[in-house]
Amino acid sequence: MTAAAMPTPSFGSPLIRAPEGGAPTIVHLTSEYSPFARTGGLAEAVMGLANYQVKGGANVVVFVPLYRSVRDHAPDLAPLGRPIQVELGFRSEEVRFFREVQPPTGPKVVFVDIPSAFSRAGLYGEGGRDYADNARRFAMFSRAVLDGIPRLIAGPVLVHGHDWHTSLALMYMRTYGGLRERYATTPTVLSVHNAGYQGHFPASMLNDCGIPPEVYNFRHLEWYDRINFLKGGLTFADMVVTVSPTHAQELRTPGGGFGLQEVFQWLGSRFTGVTNGIDQVLWNPATDAQITSNYTRADTSNKIKCKSALQRSFGLPQRKRTPLFGLTGRMVIQKGLDLILNSQLIWNLDAQFVFLGAGEAKYERALLALARARPEHVGVQLDFTDRLEHRLMAGADMFLMPSQYEPCGLTQMRAQRYGSLPIGRRVGGIADTVQDDITGFLFDEFQPAALDRAISRALARFADRSAWAPRMSAAMKQDFGWERSAERYAQVYQRAIEIADSRR
Questions:
Q1: What are residue 239's DSSP bridge partners?
Q2: Which of the 8 DSSP states describes residue 501?
Q3: Where is pLDDT greater, at 421 or 12?
Q4: How many angstroms separate the CA atoms of 264 and 12, rounded?
Q5: 416: helix, strand or coil
Q6: What DSSP string runs through 311-380?
Q7: Is the peptide bond before 448 cis (omega within 30 degrees of 0)?
Q8: Whether the Cβ atoms of residue 419 and residue 286 lie closer than 8 Å to each other
Q9: Is the pLDDT of residue 156 over 80?
Q10: Quick one: pLDDT band at residue 41, thresholds 50, 70, 90?
């Protein structure tokens, strides 16, 4: 299908209203999108929002790099129009755009093919190291999308970038001559999913990334004599969103702003927090085909079968009344692995702990050593699979989330849906979605002793079935769907449209 032959989008969305009375096409720019390219929560968050926006009547297009992993999920791709030459810095590269031959219903997903940048084994790096040219790779992606939008999408658009990887697109729109004119009144939104990753690169990359010298200053992209992609996106976006209200407040503080707190403060009312949602059809113990036995809030009796199956999967003794704690995610410092490895209870408690996921080598080695030291109490699986994650949700009694910081977090929402109560730090999205001693157990200090106290409180409730059952029921009753989040994003979009309209 050529660009000219693409169907003209419909702009009858009830979600957002442009000043003229129509609604622009929502264009998401993202480095990850489930199931095609995923390393963490970003892929699922963007997919969930985009899917719900389509259900609400919006026309949505998602641009994502054409990684090798894409072809594992979408082997049949068709080109959208002819290749184009995209100039960046002193070089130009051929770029092609693709879509699935038989795409499912939902957002239109466009894969941006830049073989020199993305035809690689990893998304961001290999062997524990980032690719040396990541700055150029994602700058080129951002620049190529801006040339692709008018070729592939009819009518007005709203550009929604995600994290540092797409931040330069917002800068290019406001600084490049041709782009500045084309996108003068285009509203822009930037979502900050994890401000701990900002895209820091040496100033020597300015030319390679096509960054105008006049914006390499302390107000825009310069950060301690380095380029900061995320900072650039923040300073050029019309509206900025992070993924929970509590985290929005944290990012404005010296202790939680990752060095950009003054930029977040400067944004004022243009910066807000909107909690992510989860797919409550996918994450539903009553219908989940990936778990051993289904159960409901009204009848949780089959959860014990899921627990026994999980114990078998991790090579642990099948003990019905032994408390079973789970943890799934990337094994990195952010997830509180240091607290877990220094916890007195986890080393000595007559309970079981299962860990799922890979990460930093030192944490992988330490968890495997813990499992060898306590073979009847600790199980570790470094090879993550979706099926095992679902089984972990269904089989665990409690979920550990002692995060150093957690912008939103999806695990605590999923766990509650399965009646597995989270034990987490009162930060970011955990604070916004877990009610202490009602649907989970929270603690404040980033200390092993604080984690142990929260575990002890949870165990006291678990030992009393009359106390545990209503807490399980309250957790499973929680509504973490995208409906409310999408409504809040619609408000953010409307504000961005008003800001953009003021530039006319």
A1: 189
A2: H
A3: 421
A4: 34
A5: helix
A6: HHHTT----SSS-EEEEES-BSGGGTHHHHHT-HHHHH-SSEEEEE--B-HHHHHHHHHHHHHSTTTEEE
A7: no
A8: no
A9: yes
A10: confident
Per-position b or e across 63-75, b if 16+ CB within 10 A of its CB: bbbbbebbeeebe
pLDDT of residue 39: 85
CA distance 239 to 492: 7
Burial class, 348, CB count within 10 angstroms (exposed 0-12 / middle 13-18 / buried 19+): exposed
pTM: 0.90
Rg (CA), the chain: 23
DSSP 8-state class, residue 7: P
Mean confidence (pLDDT) of the chain: 93
Q: Do residues 56 and 13 touch, judged by C-beta distance below 8 A? A: yes
Distance CA 175, CA 167 (A): 13
3-state SS, one letter per residue, for 29-62:
ECCCECCCECCCHHHHHHHHHHHHHHHCCCCEEE
Please compute the mean of the pLDDT values over residues 270-282 and round it to a whole number. Answer: 95
Q: Give strand pairing partners of 241.
A: 191, 272
Q: What is the pLDDT of residue 21?
A: 52
Sign of CA dihedral 69, 71, 74, 79: positive
Max Cα separation, the chain? 70
Give the C-alpha separation, 60 to 434, whole Å. Answer: 31
Lowest-confidence segment of 19-33, 408-422, 440-454 by average pLDDT = 19-33
Per-residue burial over 247-266, b = 16 or more CB atoms within 10 Å of its CB, e = otherwise: bbebbbeeebbbebbebbee
Spatial distance between the Cα atoms of 489 and 275, rounded to a whole number of angstroms: 10
CB 52 within 8 A of CB 174: no
496, 189 Cβ separation under 8 angstroms: yes
Q: Name the nearest CA neighbour of 206 among 143, 158, 135.
A: 135
276 and 429 in contact (C-beta within 8 Å)?
Answer: yes
Retrieve residue 451's tokens: 């984690």
pLDDT, mean of residues 139-149? 97
d(CA 294, CA 437): 26
CA distances (Å), origin 134, targets 38, 50, 169, 236: 17, 26, 15, 21
Q: How far apart are the C-alpha atoms of 228 and 230, rounded to whole Å?
A: 6
Q: Smallest Cα–Cα separation from 500: which of 239, 267, 240? A: 239
Closest to 239 (Cα-Cα) out of 184, 160, 155:
160
Half-sphere exposure at residue 395, Cβ-oriented, CA atoms within 13 angstroms:
33
In the predicted structure, residue 3 carries a pLDDT above the cut 70: no
Structure tokens at 271: 């910066």
